């Protein structure tokens, strides 16, 4: 009702630290400092293109950067495979925007393999998230939930937890697993309250309300829709308020006679 449960948090993974470059007179070929500049410049450009919505340009730059990095050895840059994983992630995101989900999955899967190989929790979380988003986008909710559930122990930030639980709960709702949807709605709400974030408190309440309505718990559904309505007013979210009020009025019609407000 409120927003697409597949809306991605556009987070950038922390990448790597390069060794101190050797003195120029000791270099017989392009040294780490020049490689570092190339890497940072390339990633900056790739990210900027994605941020502006230029997926094709981002894809082209990421592929060009990957062709260069693949020629390097781990002596040239110790974090070569971490960098390749980041580039696969960018390429996967570009393909996602362009609507090629098969290619997106392939690159996010490679990113996941590299992250696990290098034992990088943040990169692993990033890849698991992108796998989940891509699978959910194609309606493969059960598989998406499997990847997102693997993320749970890797996530510490309260807002990210709220978003993750909401994604899992919304996918459960789509699969008509209403008790699971309610469970994750409650977890989403708790994480949002801990983070003092009213937007995600609103989303959590709506998810619980939807799940409760589907299982016939109309009074609880109405109560959570009312809480969401109050939060929408508090945050001055007129679009959300209109959608919530409509759902709330429909839910109230299902209350037993004499309980309508």
Describe this structure as you would to a colleague.
This is Outer dynein arm-docking complex subunit 4. One of its GO terms (cellular component) is axoneme. Its main location: cytoplasm. It is found in: Cytoplasm, Cytoskeleton, Cilium axoneme. Keywords: Cell projection, Cytoplasm, Cytoskeleton, Repeat, TPR repeat. This protein is mostly helical and 261 residues long. It folds into 2 domains: 1-13 and 30-141, Tetratricopeptide repeat domain (Serine Threonine Protein Phosphatase 5, Tetratricopeptide repeat); 155-255, Alpha Horseshoe (Serine Threonine Protein Phosphatase 5, Tetratricopeptide repeat), CATH 1.25.40.10. The chain has 11 helices and no strands. The protein has helices at 32-51, 55-69, 80-98, 101-117, 121-137, 141-151, 158-174, 178-194, 198-214, 218-234, 238-252. α5 (121-137) packs antiparallel against α6 (141-151), α7 (158-174) runs antiparallel to α8 (178-194) and α9 packs antiparallel against α10 (218-234).
Describe the protein's topology:
Layout: H1 32-51, H2 55-69, H3 80-98, H4 101-117, H5 121-137, H6 141-151, H7 158-174, H8 178-194, H9 198-214, H10 218-234, H11 238-252
Helix pairs in contact: 1-2, 1-3, 2-3, 3-4, 3-5, 4-5, 5-6, 6-7, 7-8, 7-9, 8-9, 9-10, 10-11
Features:
261 residues, mainly alpha, Serine Threonine Protein Phosphatase 5, Tetratricopeptide repeat, 11 helices, 0% strand
